[in-house]
Amino acid sequence: MPVLEIVDLKKGFGGVQALDGLDFHVDKEEIVSVIGPNGAGKTSFFNTITGYFSPDEGRILFNGIDISGHQPHEITELGIARTFQNVRLFPNMTVLENVMVAQHCRSKTGIFGTLLNTRSFKREEAEIEANAKDVLAFFGERLKGYRWDQPAYVLSYANRRRLEIARAMATFPELILLDEPTAGMNPKETAELTDLIRQLRDDKGFTVVLIEHEMRVVRDVSDRVVVLDHGVKIAEGDYETVSHDPDVIEAYLGRPAEKTDE
Q1: How far is Cα 106 from Cα 5, in angstroms, rounded to an integer?
Q2: 35-65 pLDDT, tens per residue?
Q3: Which of 11, 121, 147, 228 lies in the 20 to 30 Å Cα band around 244?
Q4: Rg of the chain, C-alpha, whole Å
């Protein structure tokens, strides 16, 4: 059974189809890149999977469960986490607090335990803190040690990106959706994050779907590539096959001008 299965997914806005009959699947511990020119429907796809939009038609199956139309917090609890094209952190919270707060979607202590500072609440908070530190350790010196107590706003742009991924990891997901994770990074930072995406699968066992414009990243991490254009899947396969597909070339570069006899 695929981890994620998209079946005839359709979503429109004001008469324009952002997603139009989209079909594909993602297998366990697979890295799948979703690419396409601007306006292809990539972010609409992520927003529909994660409950920010409800589909007009079709189904979204996560481990066989139809999550179409579920609320974002319900989808997170089921095991899907995401990052955003524009980094969304709590800037005045510390690095450690940003990762701890992500875990409260799974906390068991109710409001009374929190208010009364019960023993079970203290034990659970200690577990949440320990797990947050373990997640941050995955990023090495970039996000551990003295970084724990720094407010998120003092981090470099690349480290804010890493912190957003750490926060997604802390929700205990099976599937992580990365929305343009290397956007705005220099070549060295991009190479480091490319390695990190592989490690999410190879070392941590996550299934990963990413939207990415940097084709070197797509080439180096993807098991499969899905290409969208105006909400329609126009190609799917390994990077080499997709990159030479005439429909993909046309979507990115436009149709070649016809020659005329002079």
Answers
A1: 25
A2: 999 989 999 999 999 999 999 999 999 999 9
A3: 11
A4: 20
pLDDT tens-digit series, residues 231-260: 999 999 999 999 999 999 999 877 655 544
Indicate whether 159 and 183 sit together in one domain: no
Please give the residue range of the domain that contains residue 57. Answer: 1-79+175-262
Residues 6+ apart with CB under 8 A from 247: 227, 229, 234, 235
Contact 6, 24 (CB under 8 A): yes
* Closest to 22 measured CA to CA, from 227, 244, 249, 239: 227
Give how many domains the chain has, as a whole number: 2
* pLDDT for residue 89 is more than 90: yes
pLDDT in tens, 119-134: 776 787 889 999 999 9
Residues 261 and 198 in one domain: yes
Contact 161, 185 (CB under 8 A): yes
Instruction: Name the pTM for this structure.
Output: 0.90
Q: In Å, what is the CA distance from 207 to each residue of 2, 13, 200, 258? A: 11, 30, 8, 44
